[in-house]
Amino acid sequence: MIARLLALLVVPATAASVAASSVADGQDAKPAILGRPSRAVAATPDPPRPLRGVPLTGSTGLRLLVANDPPFLLDVDTGRITHISGLNVRGHPVLTVLAAGKDAIVWLCCCAHATKIPRAEIYVVRRGAKSATRLATAWEVAPAADGLAVWLKAYADARHCILREVALDGSERQSPRPVPCSTQLIDAGTGAVLIEGRAVVDLSTGETLLDANRLWAMVGDFTVTTEGSQGPLTLTDLRSGERWRLRYPSRIGGQGGTDEAAVQRKGQLVALSFSDPAYQLSGKQVTDVWLLDPAVRRFRHLPDMPAAVSLKFTSMSWASDGRLVMLAETDQRNVVAVWRPGRQRISVRPMRLPARNSGSDAFVVWVGRSVAMKR
Question: Domain containing 332 — which CATH number?
Answer without folding.
Answer: 2.130.10.10
